[in-house]
Amino acid sequence: MLEVNPRASRTVPFVSKAIGVPLAKLASLCMMGAKLKDLGFTREIRPPYWAVKESVFPFSRFPGAPVALSPEMRSTGEVMGVDDDLGMAYAKAQMAAQPALPVGGNVFLSVKDRDKAAAVEVARDLAALGFTVHSTSGTAAAIEAAGVKVNKLGKISEGARPNALDLLKNGQLQMIVNTAAGMLPRKDENAMRSEAVLRGVYMASTMNAARAAVLGIRSLKQKALTVSSLQEHAKVLPPRG
Q: pLDDT by residue (tens digit) across 10-61?
């Protein structure tokens, strides 16, 4: 489970907490000659729950900067969401990292061409969960063709009104699904993303995140939120040796 890469220093503590094993300590002892058998760690531990890691990014501190993920390590921390249900674990992680997942309202989708098929499924799921779907012409056409009701919005750069920025400023947008066509968001996308960060609106910038959000929203609507400590979760872990 250990990786030799620039992110390893952050992966190891997370996995250690998730499985209840001090991996860094054991690795240090092994480098000094100890055997895993002597340390009582000879079995792979598969927790009977989901542990979701969410990085915390300081986008709100740099207005106007591109709101996009990159290979650089820009996060200022991380949180963990733990639950027997994957959707609820993701929802808990978002609650801690902020902004939390909404459970209703308006969602705006604008995705690159290769994500349109996935966006249709996400739009269908969100509509079934009670959301009102909005989109610009390209994505809207794909959603509408699949039989999902969608409200078309104008593009910000074209000056058409209303657009996603208008809805954000009026507090009428609760969720955004936006995947950039290139390495960085375009002008329209970055204006919308910056406003979303400013107003604490949940935004998924990949389709995997959008799918996870759907799972989380469904769980929040169907199940009660529970809180447990890591120590309580550790009690149900299988033996490590």
A: 688 899 999 999 999 999 999 999 999 999 999 999 999 999 998 887 665 6
133 within domain boundaries: yes
Q: Which domain holds residue 184?
A: 100-222
Structural domains of the chain, count = 1
β pairing state of 175-178 and 202-204: parallel
Give the dihedral of Cα atoms 139, 141, 144, 145; nearest 10 deg: -120
- Read off the CATH number of the domain in which 126 is found: 3.40.50.1380
Q: Which two tokens stand for residue 127?
A: 């509509």
Q: Is residue 35 part of a domain?
A: no
Split at pLDDT 50, 70, 90, the class of 157 is confident
pLDDT at 185 over 60: no
The answer as to whether 179 is a domain residue is yes
pLDDT one-digit tens code per residue, 60-74 = 566 666 666 655 556
